[in-house]
Here is the input.
Amino acid sequence: MAGINKVVLAYSGGLDTSVIAKWLQQTYDCEVVTFTADIGQGEEVEPARAKAEAMGIKEIYIEDLKEDFVRDYVYPMFRANALYEGEYLLGTSIARPLIAKRLVEIAAETGADAISHGATGKGNDQVRFELGAYALSPGIQVIAPWREWDLNSRDKLLAYCAEHNISVEKKRGSKSPYSMDANLLHISYEGDVLEDPAAAPEEDMWLWSVSPENAPDEATIIELDYVKGDIVAIDGQPMSPAAVLAHLNKVAGANGIGRVDIVENRFVGMKSRGCYETPGGTLMLKAHRAIESITMDRELAHLKDDLMPRYASLVYNGYWWAPERHALQSLIDYSQLYVNGKVRLKLYKGNVMIIGRESDDSLFDENIATFEDDAGAYDQADAGGFIKLNALRLRIAALKGRK
Here is the structure.
């Protein structure tokens, strides 16, 4: 790749990206700009600055993007009730468009020729980062070291660090055997024993939730306030989007909620087993469907459900910035105009139960729905003609002897 003078690297300060920073300097004889995003991963991001400085890096970006992440990415996705393959709440997937956006913005600000990331050549993240980057900056060049170098093991990476005086943080205790990725929406676990789909995850692997068996014996009741499909308050207390999700993570995790163990189909073609904790997101999905159930027109709700798998696949596969996702988002956001009101949840030992929903925009009419005398609000005799009309094609087919 010719003409590379400056590269913006998505930099965590961990082993892989620290090696990449030095490798870029050596391989491309270029200046490196580091970008570290705090999107609620639960670890200090500021130490990345000292590590970057130790490698002679002059331009260092460390940004708190938690509110941007939840407001502009998580909330829009949850308006769609998005689930990939029926189970995955897309915690890793939805973080990548934001990082890709800032990478190309910083490249423009600093006059960089390329961006770089630490995603491997086997996974989805390389696709998500790069599709996003090309959609937003068509001429940008992308350097993906894992597709170029031969440092394809932890031992080789550590040897490279020793050779080039790159500090490697020594953590007390044994190193986690899992590959983990965290943000304010979820934490994921892959690798080691999880590579066998028949093996149960170890209990001490889970970091954000207690096991349902160890959850409190008394249920927790919470109430969520919605405006246009977004949670704006919890138990009557107004909160920012990031504060909402942080609070829901805490209360749901304490009640043993949010664990999933799935085998998913990666965009690159392979199957992958992963475990995810999404405590707050689990509550958000359940509650959002509850408030929609009383405020949304039937056919609009069904259309949304028909489109949801396509929307979820677009997010999973990295097409957040594609025109079809924008078009779907416009429809979804329109559907949320009257999704306002309150939902009450009971949380108990891994379970989320809806115990009430109310809205000034509710389409539920008790006078019509009642099993008691409806005072003429609904003429039950009308149902006979309705049924016969809908049965007409079935009766014709039966008369013709078709099965």
Remarks:
- The longest strand covers residues 31-38.
- DSSP finds twelve helices and 14 strands in the chain.
- The chain has three domains: 6-71+82-163, 179-296+338-358, 368-399.
